[in-house]
């Protein structure tokens, strides 16, 4: 039996999220999809485009997850979990996410794809000296004295730098204010506070 047929039987020939019956397609659920129905979902074009990120997320459309998220089918649970995670501004989505219970393996699968897509969106991840991910607005501490080029002072080890910003295209650089001057700091010399 083809994957389309297997999925179609499982899903009752309807989108496994919103129940639409038009324009259905199999969609692999990564990151390690193996081309079988156990790692794929049947989705309509509207759902599929938003799942894959080719269309912007329309939170109203995903109210269907109030039902679909309770599916017993792991790949459907995985996609539901990820879509809910991608709508952090929707209180109903946060509440639903809190209520969901996923088996350990399924949860790991859901999170794996989420991390991958976050990285792909941005491509640049800033990490401190210990590998902790840095975000704009964080406070970091300098782990060694740094001579500030062109400013003629040394930023002392142990100095806290508040409200850092990330240099968009360079994962090894952040910016912050030290001695009232905005300076570029290498991430390898900071520790997240
Ligand atoms: Zn759909």
Task: Offer a concise description of the structure.
This protein has helices spanning 3-11, 45-52, 65-68, 74-85, 91-99, 104-122, and strands at 24-28, 40-44, 140-142, 146-148, 153-155, 160-161, 165-166, 173-178, 181-186, 190-192. By secondary structure, it is an alpha+beta fold.
Structure report:
The protein has 193 residues and is of the alpha+beta class. It folds into 2 domains: 3-114, DNA Binding (I), subunit A; 118-192, SH3 type barrels, CATH 2.30.30. It is 32% helix and 20% strand. The strands form 4 sheets. A 3-stranded antiparallel beta sheet has the order 6-3-10, with no helix packed on it. Strands 7-8-9 form a 3-stranded antiparallel beta sheet, with no helix packed on it. The protein has a two-stranded antiparallel sheet with strand order 1-2. Helix 4 (74-85) crosses helix 6 (104-122). The relative contact order is 0.10. The model has no long low-confidence stretch (mean pLDDT 91). It binds zinc ion. Zinc ion (ZN) binds at residues 15, 17-18, 20, 43-44, 46-47. It comes from Roseibium aggregatum (strain ATCC 25650 / DSM 13394 / JCM 20685 / NBRC 16684 / NCIMB 2208 / IAM 12614 / B1). This is Putative phnA protein. Residues 6-52 form the PhnA protein N-terminal proteobacterial domain.
Give the helix/strand layout.
Layout: H1 3-11, E1 24-28, E2 40-44, H2 45-52, H3 65-68, H4 74-85, H5 91-99, H6 104-122, E3 140-142, E4 146-148, E5 153-155, E6 160-161, E7 165-166, E8 173-178, E9 181-186, E10 190-192
Antiparallel strand pairs: 1-2, 3-6, 3-10, 4-5, 7-8, 8-9
Helix pairs in contact: 4-6
The structure holds zinc ion.
